[in-house]
Amino acid sequence: MVKSYLRFEPVTSFGVVSSSSSNVIYLPPDEVSSGRAVVGGLEEVLTWEIKTATLKSRWAHGSNNEATLPQVTCLKHEPNMDLIAAGYGDGSIRIWDCKSETVVVTFNGHKGAVTALEFDKSGTRLASGSKDSNIIVWDLVSEAGLFRLRSHRDQVTGLIFASPSTGNEEEEVDGDQSEKTLVNEEEESDRFLISTAKDGLIKLWDLETQFCIETHIAHKSECWALDKHDDKLVTSGSGTDVAVWNLQLNETDGSKITQLGQLTKQSQQRTITLRFHPNGNFLAVGSSDRSIELWRMRTEEEVKKLLARKKRRRKEKNPTEDEIELETTVADQFANHTVIRAPAKTRGFDWIPNAKRGRVELVVSLANNSLEAYSVDMSPAKNGAADYARTHSIELGGHRTDIRSVSISSDDRMVASASNGTLKVWNLRTRNCLRTFECGYALCTSFLPGNALVVAGTKGGQIELFDLASSTILETIDAHDGELWSLHVSADGTSMVTGGADKKVKFWEFRVSEDAATGQNKLRLKHKRTLELTDDVLCVKFSPDGKLVAASLLDNTIKVFFADTLKFYLNLYGHKLPVLSLDISHDSKLLISSSADKNIKIWGLDFGDCHRSIFAHEDSILCVAFERDSHNFFSASKDKMVKYWDGDKFENIQKLWGHHSEVWTLAVGHGSNFVVSGSHDKSIRVWEQTDEPLFLEEEREKELEQVYESTLTASLEEENRMDVSNGQDEEGDGAVESATKQTIETLKAGEKLMEAIEIGVKDLEADPSEPRNVILAALNVDAYKYVYDVIAKIKPAQCEDALLVLPFDKVVQLLRFVQKWVTQEYDIEMISRVLTTTLRIHHKQIVADKPLRTLLDEIRQNHRNALTNQKDTIGYNLAGLEQLKRYWQLNHNKQFLDDQQYKEEQERLAKKRVFTTV
Q1: Among the residues of 258-407, which ranges form H helices?
Q2: Which listed residue, 56, 276, 633, 842, has the most CB atoms within 10 A of its CB?
Q3: What pLDDT, on a 0 to 100 scale, did the predictor assign at position 783?
Q4: Which residues, including other chains, have CB under 8 Å from residue 834's CB and lie 6 or more apart?
């Protein structure tokens, strides 16, 4: 009989405040918050209340049962519709609704991580740039990609929509003229796009012609940041230069982008983020070190005084020199305001518009998993830099460095995690941090009996004892001369063993003694025995029955001793590199060891024989642990994966995906069936055993399917790329492509469409006396309606890719269905999209097929009639809405006026009838 197992599923993750792969954006106050910071938390989008330092929401998509979900790499807020665009490491983009916290639209077109996002003024278009050097413009209304711009040679780092000035901004117009002006401004809002990339170039794109009309060398090396305010562009690269550009999109002769000059920042590191303040008076530049430099825009009066002072100084130096008219430079317009020094490297910042009077504020994302808010004095400093202060800090929700150890309390309610400098205790159910202690560089931790105390071993060789009730450190013991790599509490809870780099294994007893100062009983550690070995001790464990103690050494061996007499029992050798972790089964019969040689060895403790050696991971295996009351065990490795194994059959049961960096440690629950892991990505993840059965053959088949699907999509994408490149070579233009990408979803959508067409054609050609297809009979629909329902369920962004996989014979059959749809006017917008996409993809074959001419003529005539009817319906609705608007304005635009103002208003209206708008 085939053995079945129970599947482990991810249930929660915590410990991440802000991941270093993403930027930070600020959301203004609303009815439920006083201002939030939105950051990427690995694969999730996190929203933090800045003032209270509380996590408001976590926006997660999908489930990571099969593979690790991509990290959030870029965020952008659209204020008009309160949307947030999130770019991910796999090239996908998800549009989130801030109010409902749900995904509105999903786009997938990039092959690399998304690095730049930008909405236009209307909020209906989104431009995205990626590490694949491509720029894609997306339409949020039709939920599809419009086109792909290919010209940059490296990662896109900045995108800005721009529009030419209309020249009517200061004219006061009434009535319909005002509405026309607004319409014209909206039409011009997304005409131009400015982009920068690591290739050091700044490009100006005309989105109407989809052509790059200007290219300038922005910096000698990479260009990392871009921002715009009014007619000024600012770029910055990997050096100290900040280039300022003049943008004149109305210019017909000459360049629309011209360089005005350069500013010099103090930091020598590359620029991470560059932002103008919303009022345009300040410019902030954040570098990859700990600095954020602020420049203040001088007023016209200040610039005049500065130039006059320069003239006076020049005149004093050379009295005989003729007076020369000085020109205003960029350095004259921007004044150094202050430099903010953060406690860690910055990864992004955003301005907080609703600051106190006389202050400017910004929120900063740091590389050490924290967020901070700073307030800067706006007034220019008389001597030196302006004052700034840190107003808020969000750091208690995670570790500053990678997590090196986790341990679970005996009641499975709490988990302790340790890193360099901090030890935190968490509530597993609520994911809240209960206690935070300062400690040394902790390498190992454990709860003591009673779950009131936590013990930690540090890199300095100390044992630190913490009391959870009083949130204090009770005792610090210098246990070893070198690193204390491992500690373990015995099963009976009366003693503890430690192993360190001083080649010693020390045994400790727990004793309760009265404190002379307070008179209260306290638990203390007393050194009992010492076992000296020949090499550094990397891991040490008691057997559950308390009879044996095992220690792994730096010489690649594992030595087993009797715990009572410390007499040598077994020497286990076979690993090619040092053993980093080991564990002993509940019945004290098996010992598992993991090493830097990527192998797990299973040993028998009766004779010391090696039952099996398993090549388990692609990198060093850092931790192994047995499941309670079982020979199944877990392993964690630097390859970012946790694996579940059968220790009797030596089979891999399940791969637990989720971490984005090496997994340093894991711990298995005592009573409940769950496992907790800690990683270099500073996250703590919990997997829980479910009731779903798992069979090894099915699991291996799933893994093979994943490999096949990944290679299939890659090959199809390569074929499409070659076809597109060949077509471009014929036409001579390679700057614009379609915004498509083959994924598993598009392939499945194409297969469903082919299956539906086959079912529909068979139903139409079948004898009426024969029974119908089971699906059509159950749904009680005809073949035309069934195929239409299938294609209507395909997402607009995936429609083109789904039609791309159809063979030509299926395309001919699809056109027969389209002819029926346009005749009955099902959904003319969707049908038009399917028809145009199909004709564009298979244009040459359709033109060469003469029998299709009659069918296409019928489709063209019926399609035009349907479009005319749709146009008439839309026009009628617009006229009705316009009439309702006029009626509303006529009856609701009222003002409170005194008698004299009322008479003047009546006289003005008598001369010219104008309806004022409010």
Answers
A1: 300-317, 330-333
A2: 633
A3: 87
A4: 791, 799, 803, 814, 818
Q: What is the pLDDT of residue 796?
A: 80
Give how far the C-alpha of residue 303 lies from the chain's centroid of Cα atoms, to the nearest Å.
43
Are 762 and 782 in contact by the 8 Å Cβ rule? The answer is no
Rounded to whole angstroms, the Cα distance separating 250 from 779 reads 59
Phi, psi of 840 (to 5 degrees): -70, -40
Q: Rounded distance, CA 896 to CA 571, Å? A: 97
In 3D space, the residue among 301, 291, 290 whose CA is nearest the CA of residue 328 turns out to be: 301
- Compute CA 250 distance to the chain's CA centroid, rounded to the nearest angstrom: 38
Specify which residues 656 forms β-bridges with: 642
Instruction: Tally DSSP H helices, then E strands, for the chain.
Output: 13, 56
d(CA 468, CA 437): 9
Q: What is the reported pLDDT for 914?
A: 44
What per-residue confidence (pLDDT) applies to 719?
A: 60
pLDDT score at 64: 44
Q: Three-state SS for 750?
A: helix
Distance of CA 41 to the CA centre of its chain: 7
Q: Measuring CA to CA, how many Å separate 114 from each of 94, 144, 158, 240, 896?
A: 11, 17, 11, 26, 53
Kind and range of the H or E run holding 265: none
Alpha helices by DSSP H, listed for 155-241, are: 175-188
Task: Pull the structure tokens for residue 39.
Answer: 């950051």
Please give, one letter per residue, the 3-state secondary structure of 810-859: HHHHHHHHHHHHHHHCCCHHHHHHHHHHHHHHCHHHHHHCCCHHHHHHHH
Residue 760: per-residue pLDDT: 87
742 contacts: CB under 8 Å, gap ≥ 6 = 713, 716, 717, 720, 801, 804
| Angle formed at CA 556 by CA 550 and CA 560, multiple of 5 degrees | 20
DSSP string across 602-667: EEETTT--EEEEEE--SS-EEEEEEPTTSSEEEEEETTS-EEEEETTTTEEEEEE---SS-EEEEE
Q: Looking up tokens 């045994």, which residue turns up?
A: 507
Q: How many CA atoms lie within 13 A of 674 on its CB side?
A: 24
Could you tell me the strand order of the sheet in which 359-366 lies? 346-352, 359-366, 370-377, 388-394
Q: Which two tokens stand for residue 588?
A: 């004290």
Q: Are 311 and 303 in contact (CB under 8 A)?
A: no
- Non-local CB neighbours of 669 within 8 Å, separated by 6+ positions: 408, 412, 628, 675, 676
| Predicted TM-score of the model (pTM) | 0.84
Measure the N-to-C terminal CA separation of the chain; round to a whole number of Å.
78
Please give the Cα distance from 593 to 707 (Å, whole number).
30
Location of structure tokens 């562009």: 233
Q: For residue 72, give the nearest of 660, 497, 657, 523 by alpha carbon.
A: 660
pLDDT along the chain (918 residues), means of 10: 88 92 91 88 93 91 65 93 93 92 90 93 92 92 88 93 67 43 48 93 92 91 92 91 91 86 91 92 92 90 83 73 70 89 93 87 94 89 81 93 94 94 93 93 93 94 92 91 94 93 93 71 87 94 94 95 93 94 94 95 93 94 93 94 93 92 94 90 94 90 81 66 49 59 79 89 84 85 88 83 85 88 86 87 85 88 90 94 89 66 68 44
- Residue whose structure tokens are 């998304």: 114
| Rounded Cα–Cα distance for residues 375 and 386 (Å) | 11
pLDDT of 720: 58
What radius of gyration, in Å, describes the C-alpha atoms of the chain?
34
Q: What is the torsion angle, in degrees rounded to the nearest 10, for the CA atoms of residue 603, residue 609, residue 611 and residue 617?
A: 50
Nearest to 87 by CA among 146, 28, 25, 163: 25
Residue with tokens 């990683």: 679
| C-alpha closest to that of 289 among 364, 371, 370, 344 | 344
Report the SS3 class of residue 537.
strand
Phi, psi of 795 (to 5 degrees): -65, 145
Question: Do the Cβ atoms of 407 and 415 come closer than 8 Å?
Answer: yes
